[in-house]
Amino acid sequence: MVEESARVLKVDGDVVWVQAIAKSACGSCQAQKGCGHSLLAKVGQKQIDLPVARNGLDVQENDQVIIGVPEQAILRSSMLMYGLPLGTMIAMALLMSALGLDEKLVVLASFFALLAGFIWVNRKMKHLNFAAWHPKLIRKELAVESHIPMCEID
Predict the structure, then answer these.
(1) Does this model's pTM top 0.70?
(2) Do the Cβ atoms of 121 and 42 come closer than 8 Å?
(3) CA torsion 58→62→66→67, rounded to 10°?
(4) Domain count across the chain
């Protein structure tokens, strides 16, 4: 389960609306103090509001919580959204090349195969059961207060 911290915006029965902040990979990089990309990532952080199943936890507005998404949901949705259209494009390019067609026709047919893959995924997603793929409320985040003053040592 991939876990992320979020803040509760609203409790509505068995559904909790939370706000998570989309983070970039810059938070784990060692060179983030001297990198301009890190500064741009901090400025451009997006806040995402999403509904999450309550799972019987007692939460209130402004509580910090941990939400989780199953790894299988991330892998399957990535393969569905990107792998299938790219696979159709590559298969069409190989088929057209094997038939000995002109390069312009191969590129054009591959492009239309990519579009057809995206359209097929869009239609397929309307009929899938995503209940197991949704984020779930796992637990409240523990607020740890430190009584030791923090300072930077150069």
Answers:
(1) no
(2) no
(3) 90
(4) 1
Residue 136 in any domain: the answer is: yes
Beta strands in the chain (DSSP E): 2-12, 15-22, 46-53, 64-69, 136-140
Report yes or no on 146 lying in a domain.
no
Task: Residue 11: count other Cβ atoms within 10 Å of its Cβ.
Answer: 16
Residues 136, 46, 117, CA angle at the centre, nearest 5°?
A: 70
Give the residues across from 18 on adjacent strands.
8, 50
- Provide the pLDDT confidence category of residue 86 given band limits of 50, 70 and 90: very high
Assigned domain for 17 exists: yes
Q: Which domain holds residue 63?
A: 2-140
- The number of angstroms, rounded, from the C-alpha of 3 to the middle of its chain's C-alpha atoms is 12
Q: What is the pLDDT of residues 126-148, one digit of tens each?
A: 877 666 677 787 888 776 555 56
| Cα 81 to chain centroid, rounded | 12
Q: Tell me which of 44-58, 62-76, 84-98, 99-113 is least confident.
A: 44-58
Tell me, yes or no, whether 151 lies in a domain. no
Indicate the SS3 state at residue 49: strand
Q: Is the pLDDT of residue 59 over 90?
A: no
**Amino acid in the structure at residue 7:** R
Per the DSSP assignment, residues forming a β-bridge with 140 are 65
